[in-house]
Amino acid sequence: MRLQGPALRLTVFVCESDTWHHRPLYFEIVHRAHRFGLAGASVVRGIEGYGASSRIHTVRILSLTEEMPVEITLIDSEEAIRAFLPELDELVPEGLAVLEPVEAIHYLGSSARLAATGTGEPFPHPPGGS
After folding, report:
1. Segment holding 115, helix H or strand E
2. H helices within 11-66, ranges in order?
3. Residue among 70, 77, 74 nearest 30 (CA)
4. CATH code for the part of the protein at 5-117
5. In angstroms, rounded to a whole number, what is the distance separating the alpha carbons of residues 9 and 103?
6. Distance between CA 48 and CA 109 in Å, rounded?
7. pTM (2 d.p.)
8. What is the tens place of the pLDDT at every residue in 73-130?
9. Torsion of Cα atoms, 28 then 33 then 34 then 35, to 10°
10. Between residues 52 and 100, which one has the greater pLDDT?
11. pLDDT of amino acid 130
12. Model confidence over 29-43: pLDDT tens digits?
């Protein structure tokens, strides 16, 4: 799905060890967002952080724990993101979600340029452009 212009970013903060039916919670959120048709999703594992417990989790301490923070970011139109929120109500027992208005700029790769221009060459620059 292509997205250009005003959008909404939903960022969900959970713990790496959080699960949904024996799978990582972040995995389930991303796959539901994909099935829901949202424009984009990514997961970033934190190296340090704390949440409601105020206990700091860090990779600097030798530990086998999987209590590191995980950030799931979803981007789409405001309407689509707000329609997806009930999915999070079902999935996230504890965590934080943040909604932020953003401006989306979609960049096309060479295969998309080929489909659009028939040559694979970059789109012509506007007059006076570089």
Report:
1. helix 110-117
2. 25-36
3. 74
4. 3.30.70.120
5. 9
6. 34
7. 0.75
8. 999 999 999 999 999 999 998 889 999 999 998 776 666 655 666 655 555 545 554 4
9. 90
10. 100
11. 47
12. 999 999 999 999 999
Mean pLDDT of the chain: 83
Q: Which residue has the tokens 């934080």?
A: 96
What is the four-CA torsion angle of 45, 26, 53, 98, rounded to 10 degrees?
Answer: 90
Centre a 10 Å sphere on the Cβ of residue 41 and count the other Cβ atoms it contains.
Answer: 20
DSSP 88: H
CA distance 75 to 106: 12
Tokens of 62: 């030798």
**How many of the other CB atoms lie within 10 Å of CB of 83?**
14
Residue 106: how many other CB atoms lie within 10 Å: 13
